[in-house]
Amino acid sequence: MAANNAHASRWKAAKLVVAAALLVYPLAIYFMQNALKPSELLAGLLLLFAARTLLAAWIGNRRRMLSALIAAVLFAAAVTVVLWLPGLKINWLRYYPMLLDLAAFAVFFGSLFTRMPLVERFARLVRDDLPPQGVRYTRQVTWAWSGLLLAVAAGSLYTAVAAPLRIWSLYNGLIVYLIFGAAFGCEYIVRTYLRHRWAAA
After folding, report:
1. Contact 52/19 with Cβ under 8 angstroms?
2. Of 93, 123, 152, 160, which sees the most CB atoms within 10 A?
3. What confidence tens digit (pLDDT) does each residue in 162-178 have?
């Protein structure tokens, strides 16, 4: 049992390392632009996504064959980019943070039209007996995150189109995460206050 737990912990640690690498990749693009070709930078990004896909599947122990196929396609794409797209422009790499933000927006916003919004799903992992006020609150928070993600995507698009590479890297590799951290902090404060109100009512 201990050996299995240690093995699972190593998988999770590797997943966290890959996730962190994806988060700071805009900064890596800025600092490595003179050392690596844009095609090599894109290939590195594709390989990180492939590793993320495989690690998530192996940790969750589900859809491993599908994940392996997706990872193989991403790996093949990385090889193709390096071998057959040597003239790739670095500007093409600027759009991937916006695409990730839009994908997250689609998940949050789309969940508003299901039986249970995404934030409520997260909340019920911690507390299944949400009061009616809590259910309404999680829907409002889902709306708020949808709006924030759309605004962040718009900012990412602007930096990709109209800003120098260093501004793009700073925004997508640092400022965005400061914004998300501040949003998490503010939501936690509001949630704590409202829970005390609900308990006292």
Report:
1. yes
2. 152
3. 999 899 999 999 999 99
Least confident segment among 17-21, 79-83, 114-118: 17-21
- Residues 153 and 159: their CA atoms lie apart, in Å, by 10
* Type of residue found at 172: N
pLDDT given for residue 160 in this prediction: 93
pTM of the model: 0.78
User: 119 with 141: CB under 8 angstroms?
Assistant: yes
- Which phi and psi angles does 134 have, rounded to 5°? -65, -40
- pLDDT, tens only, 3-49: 555 555 666 777 777 777 777 778 778 887 776 787 888 888 888 88
Residue 82 in this model has a pLDDT that exceeds 90: no
Query: Rounded to 5 degrees, what are φ and ψ at 24?
Result: -95, 5
Cα-Cα end-to-end distance for the chain:
46
Q: Which residues neighbour 22 within 8 Å (Cβ) at sequence distance 6 or greater?
A: 45, 48, 49, 52
